[in-house]
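User: If only I could read backbone structure tokens as easily as an amino acid sequence. Underneath my words sits a plain record pairing an amino acid chain with its backbone structure tokens. This is the protein in question:
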Amino acid sequence: MGLRVHRLEMRDWRNFEDKTIDFADDVTILVGPNAVGKTNSVEALQLLTAGASFRRPTPGQLIREGAEAARIHADLLGDGRVIDQACDVTPRKRSFSHNGKTCKAADMPRTLMSVLFNPDDLALVKRGASQRRDEIDAFGRQASANYGNLLAAYQRTVEQRNRLLKDPYPDLALLDAWDASLAVGGAALLSARVKLYCRLADKMVPIYREIADGEELGTAYVSALGDVVGVDRPELECRLADAIATGRAEDLRRQQTCVGPHRDDLAFSVRGRDARAYGSQGQQRTVVLAWKMAEVEVAHDVLGDKPLLLLDDVMSELDGARRGAVVGFVGQDIQTVITTTNLGYFDEGLLAAAKVVDFGE
């Protein structure tokens, strides 16, 4: 069965003074009006599994007003294991622990990954490229510690190079060094990201076809270096080094690094037409739904355990057919936590099988 979240305890966390939730092994539905803490509970689960929050809060924002510190703690059970994941928060710091031993935020997904789907994600196809890069990179950080290290190192290189480009009289010898570092680090990140993209795309296409009654989805990784799928890392490094050298004058003029994986994009097409420009809202939302389902399947492939699936108020944003696809998917032995203001979005079969936690009581 794999690991499951058995219990979540929150003390002085967001709006909660003291709150405990017990979860079912399959589906738990948190129901209640807005502003009672359903999403705060999902955020706690995400922090204890992904090591990060989709809200990107400061530590102080996580602490209940009037309290000095906060703590969240989850018991994970499965396969004969009992695991404790916790996060202690002070106004300036978050401290994570695994079975009572201090660890890094990046270590949390090594125990149990999570996939979050919320209403903001539904606009992923039509939003800017940075949102799509952030989505695949956030998943990559969970799936692989090495991916997270490559991403952090590359981002530091871009920041340092940009700082030098903003100098009115940059040291060109130093810029040469940063260019070389950018090519090496960028190629390493690009190689890892493209491999992850391919794994996700291989899952997305058949999932989309099934949800959309046979409609075909096309996917592409868009890079200034051309077609990078299947290209080895040394070749990527050569291409990126050439592009950096060619673009140096433009980089100096604009005072920023204009080429590299931090500028890449993911593109989707439906029936051969760009989904971002020509796809209907339903088609765009189906792409995102297939993407999230693909993340669940790839996470299972990577870690051997199915991740925790967090659906935060997303059912209200989907039509009946897509809600049905979600219900069918979560029935595949995936522990799922769903928040909603209305149980009417769910069929009787799901409600009968799920554990319902009423936040309105």
